[in-house]
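[stage:ingest] chain + small molecule (zinc ion)
[stage:ingest] validated
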Amino acid sequence: MALQNYQYDMIMRQFNRKQTRANRILAEHQANAFARCPRLRQIDEEIAALSSDCLRRMLNGEIRDTKGLRSSIEKLSLERLHILSDAGFPPNYLEPAYSCERCQDTGYIGNEKCSCFKQAEISLLYAQSNLQELLSRETFSRFSLSYYSDTKVHEASGQTERQMAMKAYDISRRFVEDFKEKSDNLFFYGDTGMGKTFLSHCIAHELLEKSYCVLYFSAYDLFEKLARYAFSKEESGGTMEDILSCELLIIDDLGTELTNSFVASSLFTCVNDRLIRQKSTIISTNLDLESLSQTYSERTVSRIMGNYHMVKLTGKDIRLQKLFAQRHTAS
Ligand SMILES: [Zn+2]
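[stage:predict] done
[stage:export] tokens:
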């Protein structure tokens, strides 16, 4: 990612703030817990003394391993847990509350940037910093099956609209649960206003919460950005490489962009390159499969059909249903 020095400094300052916040909360918790249970402070001091004593003796060559130290610390930690539980504190009350457990809010794991650091870069470069806030209302728990008919049967699949929606929901949940283990791809298609964008927002929301590196674009914005990378030399923040290498790329509303040969070949590059790199992609579209093959190249469509979960949603436009319900209540 093409970060300039001042941008790198900005991100590092964010990480410093996160660490300061975690430390401040820990200090508050300690003050609180130590005031109520003074033994907890003694335990802390005993663990610190044991550790430094062990370190000194190892450096002097008096001992070789830390087995004894570990078992003493375990005993003290267990005692601490009992005291916390008796006093009604949660078991992790005296542990720092990092927003990213993986890097403990340092932004790095060893010499490698943590995915939360990469997400911070993306937020900065693509002005997506409001994405998380935007998505905060779009959670799986708000996905309602009541908008999908449980009597209307979709001819090709033989399932009711509600069964299809349920399946789409399950696939989306599983996508998030399995995200760490394997790269997978989803293709949401079907009627307008059936929750395709909503489900991809839910997925983005959950993965951003887990500090994965997610890039989200409407098809229109994505191809405009790619055209700028390809045809102009201006420094517009971000690179093609980010789009090809982020952990999850979401392309929303495919088919609403102006289609031309550049768009068709860029879509193939995105889809194909990300498959080779084993990076997950989600595409949503109102196009049916026939229009898809007419609009984009056959090789793109066949890559999608062969490597994406095809998830169809059908029914009556939810936005219209909501609007109708609102008017009905108002009148
Ligand atoms: Zn991290």
